[in-house]
Amino acid sequence: MSTRPRDTSADAERVQRALRERGSLAPLVARLVPALEAAELTYMIVGSVAAGIHGAPRDAPDLDLVIDGDRFEHRAFVSGLSDATYYVDRDRALEAWRARGWFNLVDIETGYRVDLRVRRIHPFSREELARRRTCPIEGVEAFVATAEDTILGMLEWGHVRESAAIVVTQRDALDRAYIDRWARELGVESEWMRVARGLRDADGEPR
User: Fold this and answer.
1) Is 199 a member of any domain?
2) Would you tell me how many other CB atoms lie within 10 Å of the CB of residue 172?
3) How many Å apart are CA 151 and CA 145, to the nearest integer?
4) In-domain check, residue 171
5) Which domain holds residue 62?
6) Is 205 part of a structural domain of the chain?
């Protein structure tokens, strides 16, 4: 369990730095979040942007989100995307809800791609979405995956180095028991143990 409260001011500083490094991604977030909320979709930012917020900046040319809602909310979001603002295959986007899969859109102004994943039917997917928290992004309060869930997501995708960077940044603020539990459930326990062991070695702690 966490032994000290999260420093939300430090989180805000990291997110602003991450977005400055990405240049024109911030206005995209500012446009997209209101569209998601207008359709009453539950969402959170994951992937490289979340990793940057929690202490592991990654140079990835896209924005990743998990979204959740019923088919009417999903359809309202897809239908509300302006052709003047985004390129999106609407049929594929609607099929993604039925298949619990992925779809993407491209922001025409910036050229950035947004990958949207419909929430998986898995206990972890429900829990990570329930644990999301807000972080200010260019004046917009956006929901972002927690540090623990970002670590687990990175490990699922094989990004051990980025997971380790988040652990080094967050350290005692992390709920290690939560990560231990879900690393076992998700089949990434060995990768997580490598990350945790590396931190203990760096701190000079006995194994």
Assistant:
1) no
2) 8
3) 10
4) no
5) 8-145
6) no
Mean of pLDDT values over 99-119: 93
- Find where tokens 């998700």 sit: 186
**Residue 140 and residue 138: Cα distance in Å, rounded?**
6
Token pair belonging to 44:
């959170």
Q: What SS3 class is residue 204? A: coil
How many separate domains does the chain show?
1
Domain of 55: which CATH number?
3.30.460
Residue 166 in tokens = 């988040």
Does the pLDDT of residue 167 top 70, yes or no?
yes
d(CA 205, CA 126): 34
Domain membership of residue 183 (yes or no) is no
Q: Give the span between the Cα atoms of 169 and 198, in whole angstroms.
A: 13
Residue 145's nearest CA partner among 40, 34, 49, 23 is 49
- pLDDT(182) > 50: yes
Query: Mean of the pLDDT values across residues 165-171?
Result: 93
Q: Retrieve residue 88's tokens.
A: 């999106």
Q: Quote the pTM value.
A: 0.84
Task: Using pLDDT thresholds of 50, 70 and 90, give the confidence band for residue 34.
Answer: very high
Enumerate residues 6+ apart whose C-beta is below 8 A from 126: 119
The model's pLDDT over 39-55, given as tens digits with 9 standing for 90+, comes to: 999 999 999 889 989 99
**What dihedral do alpha carbons 63, 68, 71, 77 form, nearest 10°?**
-40
